[in-house]
Amino acid sequence: MKNFLVNCLVLVLSISLVSCSTNTRNQNTAVGAVTGGAVGGLAGSLVGAGTGQAVAIGAGIVAGALIGGYIGSRMDSSDNTQMYGAMNKPVNHPTTWKNSRSGGTYTMVPTSKMMTVNGNPNCRRYHTTAVMGGKTETTNGIACLQSDGTWRAVR
Question: What is the pTM of this model?
Answer without folding.
Answer: 0.56
